[in-house]
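Hi R.,

As promised, here are both runs. First protein below:
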Amino acid sequence: MSRTASSAGPVRRGTGASTVSLVISTLDEGAELHATLESVFAGSAVADETIVVDDGGTDGSCTVLEGAQWRARGVVVHRIRRSGVAAARNAGARLAHGTHLVFLDAHCRLERNCLARLRAALEARPDAVLAPAVRDIGGTSAGCGARLIDAHLRVRWLPPAPDRTAPYPVPLAPGGCLAVRRVTFDRLGGFGTFRELGLEDVDFSLRAWRAGVDVLAVPGARLAHRFRPYPPYRLSSTSRAYNVTRVALVHFDGSRREECLRKVIGTPRAAEVLVEAFADDWEAQRAVVEATSVRSVEAYFERFGDWR
């Protein structure tokens, strides 16, 4: 992590054995992407490298970042064919050189000490996945971690625990921002194979729990996120239903899986979604997860609360 010395960019100093790579996936975010990066570089500490993965964008917002000003700040742009946020984050992780990875949405505003506190928490708990406190841009109430609330796999943000400053366990690290050591990320297999947007963070958090990796809230690391009803790009009507099906097939059994699949049946082109999901590699992925699991899904719901 490097400290920002002037508007000309951070002064790089020796950082010992650990380094931080910031990975931002973006798709037609326009000015939001630039404002996110400005907040990153206004911090008390910044990442050793910042990788912006352009997930098939067409608005030209990433072209600006290829200029000398951003290159001097250590910003690298990597373009891929549109593949979805999980694939974009995985692509950024493959390019990253850091021992620590921080994944960030392209419509956020980091508070001054956010990255510094995430890094300090990772140094203290290198075996964990970390979730900062997040509020809506323009709002004041923050959430820190989230939990599943129903078979649609919708989530509810959790309020920061009162009088807690040290990291503490939560069920899910929402994907808008999470931090993890590279060795842990690789051990968990990166983000799963999900379409477009949604539930890659649920799957990642479930796989972490099952592998014995705690998901921890870091209430002192704070940022604002622009929550919005629709992203600035079109989404397929079937992508979320596919993602729900995949989580259910990889992680759940019995009535819990059946509940999720029944929710999918009422969605557009449900038969097509189910056929495609069942034909994909979920059985291989399930076998990998089960082979590395030391905690059960039922223990997860007993610990953090059920949706039923």
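And here is the second one, sequence first, then its structure tokens:
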Amino acid sequence: MQVFQYPSQTQWAALQQRAAAQEAQEIEQRVQAIFQDVRQRGDAALRDYAQQFDGVQLQDLRVTPEEITAAVAQVPAELQTAIRQAHANIWKFHATQRTEEKPVETMPGVTCWRRSVPVQRVGLYIPGGTAPLFSTLLMLGVPARLAACPEVVLTTPPQKDGSVNAVILFTAQLLGISTIIKAGGAQAIAALTGGTDSVPAVDKIFGPGNRYVTAAKQLATRHGVAIDMPAGPSEVLVIADETANPAFVAADLLSQAEHGPDSQVILVSDSMAVIEQTQAEIERQLASLPRAAVATQALTESRAILLRTPEDMLYFSNQYAPEHLILAVRNPEQLAEGVTSAGSVFLGHYTPEAAGDYASGTNHTLPTNGYARNYSGVSLDSFLKKITYQRITAEGLLNVGPVVETMAEAEGLSAHARAVTLRLEAVARTLE
């Protein structure tokens, strides 16, 4: 990690920069071509891309019930138990996010309320590759089920033998998801956007992915399909004071660095000793890390920054707006009160970010690349639409009608005023 000692605030913006996306224009052009191809050739295009990118010839793009049954039998009992416990914790936390429908009488005879309606068709994209993210399927599938979305479609890349990762299929069965498509990459997003013979078109797409998937999701929004949020590489910022355990801090930094070579980890401390000891711990722990090469590459774009006060450290973090924020400090609750921009916050020395990734209950699908300034992570609300209703009685119209007439006429919208005036006149006739 690069170390910066007491940088002035004029230097902070440069230190808060994420790695610039390379070849963005080329990626977008390639994704646009994939969208057009999938729109024109449908399933045939998906099978061709499976052979090209995944090295497998597929006859049927849909996972069969027999494949799911066979996969479940392959998952070790210990892992099944762990996934079930994580599922229970995530369900319990997200269930508290349900809100009651509460009618409000804003004036006598004027009643307004809001009702939550599930997004009717949602698509969940789960990457495969070297790290099949069954944990992300839990994070997306649980709130989708709590929201009672009528149609949930899962897309995930096939393995070399044409199967889908067994743990992903076990998790899908646990969630009650039966529409599972063997498709990955931008082509899966294209299929969810426009639909094919095998893939239902959806209203909203959720899930992480590489730069091609991210570009595809952004392109989907131009075709009237919503997405969970703008996404980028994983990131964590750790605020550590002299009470922090350097071994814990190093492990937290490496847990994000191992996600991918473009991940970014930031250590902010008011103790040079903690920074130095954490650096040494990173080197020591890297030696036994299976994904050491990936983590090492990520560390080249990562930084350790020495600042003078807790206030400075918190101000730096709020400007950076990290996906994950760990407060490894003496009084984490006190410092947490000042957090204004972060995807998810982890308080104290015994709260690793990895717990949130898997099983504590909060959602790990979070805004990255500074979007925590204006986006929230995935929640139950992500799978719901909020529709407002109102009912006005004759008494209510007498109360609110003149207000509407005055405002509409002031804006020069006479038809708006007339829609009220005609009704007021009708009410007046009934009172004669």
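A quick note on the second one: The mean pLDDT is 95. Let me know what you think.

Best,
J.
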